[in-house]
Amino acid sequence: MSDFDPTVYLPDDLLERIRSRAAAVDAENRFPDEDLAELRDAGYLSILVPTALGGAGLGLAEAAVLQQRLATAAPATALAINMHLVWTGVAKVMADRGIDDLSFVQTGAVAGEVFAFGISEAGNDLVLFGSDTVATPDADGGYTFSGTKIFTSLGPVWTQLGLHGLDTTDPAAPKMVYAFVPRSEAVETRDDWDTVGMRGTQSRTTVLHAAAAPADRVVRRVDPGPNPDPIVFGIFSVFEVLLASVYTGVARRALDLAIAAAKTRTSKKTGRPYSDDADIRWRIAEMALTYDGLLPQVASIAHDVDALVDHGGLWFPKLSGLKHRTVVAAKQVVDEAMLVAGGSSYFTRNELSRLYRDVLAGMFHPSDPESAHATVAAAWVGPVSA
After folding, report:
1. Eight-state DSSP code of residue 235
2. Is this model's pTM higher than 0.90 or not?
3. Closest CA relative to residue 301, chosen from 331, 324, 268, 332
4. What is the CATH number of the domain that holds 99?
């Protein structure tokens, strides 16, 4: 990690081109197709795939740094790509632990496939531990899936959808089924993404009409409820670390923009730049102190996933806590940046106004504040009395 150079995988010129398109993508409420094309050409979709399979062979810790860097240019692009990287990251987590069930994800990513994350469902606060999607086994070992998934990032462009559903064929022994379905007529992608921020993710609603996953794309059958199965750990760990990375990148960009604004704004009262004003300097220092605290948290947890550290029952509170602290801190940094920059930041043409809207999305991703606090309370206080 000490020798890791993020510009090798995300060069400055590519980053600037992505940054130059971000405002138009947001204003036009469209998917950043140009960003995806350039990132695919640069091999970014396979950064977590082993070199033996044609990828870059990076670990989660390096991917976290890259996603922070990408988010400074275009948070929505970074968040959309996150969902593809989650599946390649899960494949790595499982392979590192001797399970090659997702090797097709790794080879597919190298070949240019785009994997989307079809887990979220309206009103399903069980998330990975339950599903309203019906998983029906077929005679050949495959499954069909019927139900509705929400917040499916990469909506217009994904080629494979990783999802879960509940198989209740045996009511006494239901199973959560994890599988991948290709884009087909059985998968309806609604054009319904019109949100406050993160508009470029195009995280559209996905309706499954008996979408078929062949037997070789059914990767896991596990019991419902809290489960230590490697796919549950893999999804939760990679998802939370990469989410934290994106919002850490948003905080860094807001800090940089606030500093630039303070140096260019001049006080009519004193004739001096706002960067000399004690109150403004205090705000920027507070932002920097908050941002600096995020970096070691993300790096430490990502390293522990890579190094197969066993935190036992503390893994889930550590991961949900990381995500919660990061998005709360990032929002605080953006709020302060808006105040440093002054009224001009309230105009939509100002990049800070977009970051202000984008950072709000962080609170809605799993684990939400209620779930994070419940998970941490259970770890420290114990379960609620029966």
Report:
1. H
2. yes
3. 324
4. 1.10.540.10
